[in-house]
Amino acid sequence: MKTMDIKKVGSYMANTPHVQENRPVRPEEPPAQVPKNLDAEGAEDRVQFSREALELARSRVMMDREEIRTEKVDALRQKIQDGTYTVDPQKIAARMLDEII
């Protein structure tokens, strides 16, 4: 098995030219000017949401609705147990027709 002599690594790095040291120095460029048609006065900001963000927003709305529905179901369940729940056949028929049409 061969062994490597690592004592020479430090001297090797000292003799290696560094890219940063060999790079010529450039004069600093002035900051870029913003064209007048893009300055803040007449600019319009736009936001475009990804499909995933829109789906996440919809799911959050649905989760909030589920809480409301849970409360509604609990209230209806209580009415049924109390015997105070009544069904309006006209409303049921109207909603069924609305879904078909």
From TrEMBL:
Record's keyword annotation contains Transcription regulation: yes
Anti-sigma-28 factor FlgM C-terminal domain boundaries: 45-98
Chain intervals for the UniProt region annotation (Disordered): 1-44
Keyword Methyltransferase: no
GO biological process assignments: bacterial-type flagellum organization; negative regulation of DNA-templated transcription
Keywords: Bacterial flagellum biogenesis, Cell projection, Cilium, Flagellum, Repressor, Transcription, Transcription regulation
Biased composition (Basic and acidic residues): 20-29
InterPro entries tied to this protein: Anti-sigma-28_factor_FlgM_sf, FlgM, FlgM_C
UniProt-listed SUPFAM superfamilies: Anti-sigma factor FlgM (SSF101498)
A Pfam family assignment: FlgM
Function comment: Responsible for the coupling of flagellin expression to flagellar assembly by preventing expression of the flagellin genes when a component of the middle class of proteins is defective. It negatively regulates flagellar genes by inhibiting the activity of FliA by directly binding to FliA.
Family (UniProt): Belongs to the FlgM family.
Name the record gives this protein: Negative regulator of flagellin synthesis
Lineage, opening ranks: Bacteria, Pseudomonadati, Thermodesulfobacteriota, Syntrophobacteria, Syntrophobacterales
Gene for this chain: flgM
